[in-house]
Amino acid sequence: MTTLSAPAPTHWLNKVPQVTLSFWIIKIMCTTVGETGADFLAINAGLGQNLTRAIMAALLTAALLVQLRKRRYTPWIYWLTVVLVSIVGTQITDLLTDGLGVSLYISTSVFAALLAAIFAVWYAVEHTLSVHEIFTRKRELFYWSAILCTFALGTAAGDLATEALHLGFTWGLVAFGALIAATYTAWRLGGNAVLTFWIAYILTRPLGASLGDLLTQAKSYGGLGLGAMWTSALFLTVILVLVTREQMAMDGHDQAPATR
């Protein structure tokens, strides 16, 4: 699910990370935090759904503005933006489902159609959907629009599978894990790298949500009862360690003396 990096233009460097094992680990952790973090702030911290949505939307806007101003991939702001996108994407789906009573079948279908439309316009304008070629402002805006939609779609699809279709948290985790494994196998057998990347990216959202629910929900509901606070803190710590390692590696590379 990776491709070779394209040469960067004179004034832009790729704005997103290389797709490595670390990338997928952090991505899954971010998706889980999106599920558990929103619940913690709205319920455990007592902020309520409306205030939590307003705060997260404002933080996402601020983080995205900083990300767009960067001239290359910067780990801390990129992954902070992903965490906030994960939370906001979760809240969008929850608002439709819990607040407005929209069926999960409808929201899943609508988000899937919207994501397909974003990809269609993106490809028509830029002639590529590769994440190794995000080095212009226009492509980056397409990229983040698609990312937000994948989180909303993944939340709706995950809730549809675990709740409406009654798979439960454990079987939902198994089912989405199996789909990701099948996608990885397809890529290893020569499947299109861009297509398999985006399929896997979408599937990691319901995988992370199922994992988050399994860890946080009470045992009477099929979970392990760890709670949203401890699960969010644990996963955020792992994210922080991995992102700090990436940032330090990049800083060390920048400071290394040039060699002939």
In short:
By secondary structure, the chain is mostly helical.
Fold and architecture overview:
It is a single chain. With 260 residues, the chain is mainly α. The protein has one domain. It is 75% helix and 0% strand. It contains eight helices and no strands. Helix 1 packs antiparallel against helix 2, helix 1 crosses helix 3 and helix 3 crosses helix 5. The chain is globular, with a radius of gyration of 18 Å.
Helix percent reads over 70%
Q: Overall mean pLDDT score?
A: 87
Poorly predicted parts: 3-12
Structural class: mainly alpha
List the secondary-structure elements in sequence, H or E. Answer: HHHHHHHH
Q: How many DSSP helices?
A: 8
As a percent range, the share of strand residues is under 5%
Report the principal-axis shape: globular
Main beta sheet strand tally, sense and closure:
none
Distance between the termini: 34 Å
Rg result: 18 Å
List the helices and strands and how they pair.
Blueprint: H1 21-44, H2 49-69, H3 75-99, H4 104-126, H5 137-164, H6 168-188, H7 193-216, H8 228-255
Helix pairs in contact: 1-2, 1-3, 1-7, 1-8, 2-3, 3-5, 4-5, 5-6, 5-7, 6-7
Notable characteristics:
single chain, mainly alpha, 8 helices
